Fold this sequence. Notes:
single chain, alpha/beta, Rossmann fold, Alpha-Beta Plaits, 2 domains, 24% strand, elongated, disordered C terminus
Amino acid sequence: xxxxxxxxxxxxxxxxxxxxxxxxxxxxxxxxxxxxxxxxxxxxxxxxxxxxxxxxxxxxxxxxxxxxxxxxxxxxxxxxxxxxxxxxxxxxxxxxxxxxxxxxxxxxxxxxxxxxxxxxxxxxxxxxxxxxxxxxxxxxxxxxxxxxxxxxxxxxxxxxxxxxxxxxxxxxxxxxxxxxxxxxxxxxxxxxxxxxxxxxxxxxxxxxxxxxxxxxxxxxxxxxxxxxxxxxxxxxxxxxxxxxxxxxxxxxxxxxxxxxxxxxxxxxxxxxxxxxxxxxxxxxxxxxxxxxxxxxxxxxxxxxxxxxxxxxxxxxxxxxxxxxxxxxxxxxxxxxxxxxxxxxxxxxxxxxxxxx
Length: 356
């Protein structure tokens, strides 16, 4: 049943298990056409699994999902004609040139070679790769490979684009450059679903944000609305040695308007103080000094998405849990899971596009 309205992506009750691993536990989500939705969560939260469901690479155990009104399970071929996908791992061939990679991707989408070649030249110039177009990809830097992977996902003019942690591992310059490319795609009318662990990235790029944890949506809304849920300014403290963290919390908790949120991985805690008055910072220093507690950092700032995530989940958005892309590998106990998954995703991409 087609979905009506302005939703380019619509999902209801999506569940997916890998053995005992509950990767998705009833995801509901809607993305309006011509907007960017940021899907945020820690490693292992289910972000990549959800993207794979929407991209027709994985069938959900239950629930429904539509892309541009087409069911991702029952009308997968139509969905594949409409989408572009840039996954966590660059699906490019090291032994081909950048130009040859994009032409190959275009032909997999059944573009004739002349059209695929024209698209390749246009995309290479647009993504600032024209000078390296005829070099083998094995000579490319990480940032260049990510841009080439994005170019390959755009060759068929997709109306809906899935970007799964597109800036992971990039240097700051490459990351900012890719941000601008993403903004251009939206200005040109594309709909984007962006998964990321970087909350500042979502804050910069997303019109709407969905926070996901343990396979469930825990909050959604515009970035500013989510930050407002924290309430007032946030006092952030990091102490040394780390075993004095509990003492610092007891000293500073009376200054807050809500219970402190503790991140024991980084040895910091955040507490909403409900005030923009800098005197709270002076009072915090006085109390910590009187208790003999040394600081490595103390700051008062407006709430960030990190504060919102910490407040809602009790932990930071990046954890040491296995990546969602490793759900199947973890289930199978496969130490080489990432490497095998990369080959499997590339193979599924070819299989999917052959059906178009």
